[in-house]
């Protein structure tokens, strides 16, 4: 297996291209769905919600890669992509996320870890997670944006393909990227207090862009999501 350092060097020229592709695909998919004349009897509507949820998760994963400097070695470009993808994900502010995420890596599964909850129970932990990462400023910006966008697009489409997938993706990110890997944090006998998904690259991608390979991510945080499966190898 290649070293983490060599993997990082190998992916560097492509990181920013993949990041812009993620943003473009999300925008294209969203716009297409917002102008779609939907019928609730059409099963494709519900598949589209799942697709858009997965793309929303991809936006956040791209912002997460920027937090580890793995989108581009050019710091300005790396930070710009981090800001863009964070803001597209319900007006999250990149600088705030950056601080909290690195606290998570430094103090994993401890009382100083902003992503950890001692209860180990899904709903109290999820509620704590949401409260820490949602601000009044975000809610105001989302409300204003919804009111403006409904002047252009049908409200049903906005709720189904813009608002709902954003909410669902928080469950996807939380469940596969935080809860499952760290719910038994004190019991994991390893330096990262993390579990890892059994090797299954298709499921690892579909569930959370390979972040089910969570021990590997903590062990090689500079490896971007689209190369993380190689660390599992």
From TrEMBL:
Alphabetical list of InterPro entries matching this protein: FA_desaturase_dom (IPR005804), Fatty_acid_desaturase (IPR012171)
Annotated keywords: Membrane, Transmembrane, Transmembrane helix
Domain Fatty acid desaturase as annotated: residue spans: 43-140, 151-231
GO MF, any single term: oxidoreductase activity, acting on paired donors, with oxidation of a pair of donors resulting in the reduction of molecular oxygen to two molecules of water
GO biological process, one term: lipid biosynthetic process
GO cellular component, one term: membrane
TM spans (from-to): 14-36, 43-64, 76-94, 159-180
PANTHER family, sorted: DELTA(5) FATTY ACID DESATURASE C-RELATED, FATTY ACID DESATURASE 2
Protein known as: Fatty acid desaturase
Source organism phylogeny: Bacteria, Pseudomonadati, Bacteroidota, Flavobacteriia, Flavobacteriales
């Amino acid at each position: 297996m290649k070293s983490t350092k060599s993997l990082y060097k190998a992916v560097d020229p492509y990181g920013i291209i993949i990041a812009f592709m993620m943003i473009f695909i999300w925008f294209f998919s969203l716009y297409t769905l917002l102008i779609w004349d939907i019928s609730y009897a059409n099963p494709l509507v519900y598949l589209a919600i799942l697709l858009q949820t997965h793309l929303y998760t991809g936006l956040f994963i791209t912002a997460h890669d920027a937090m580890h400097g793995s989108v581009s070695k050019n710091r300005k470009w790396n930070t710009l992509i981090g800001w863009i993808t964070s803001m597209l994900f319900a007006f999250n502010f990149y600088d705030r996320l950056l601080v909290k995420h690195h606290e998570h890596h430094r103090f994993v599964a401890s009382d100083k870890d902003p992503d950890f909850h001692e209860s180990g129970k899904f709903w109290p932990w999820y509620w704590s997670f949401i409260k820490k990462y949602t601000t009044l400023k975000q809610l105001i910006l989302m409300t204003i944006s919804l009111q403006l966008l409904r002047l252009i697009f049908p409200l049903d489409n906005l709720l189904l393909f813009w608002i709902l997938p954003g909410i669902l993706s928080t469950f996807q990110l939380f469940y596969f990227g935080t809860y499952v890997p760290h719910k038994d944090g004190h019991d994991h006998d390893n330096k990262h207090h993390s579990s890892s998904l059994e090797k299954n690259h298709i499921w690892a991608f579909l569930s959370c862009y390979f972040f089910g390979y969570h021990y590997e991510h903590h062990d090689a945080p500079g490896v971007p999501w689209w190369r993380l499966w190689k660390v599992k190898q």
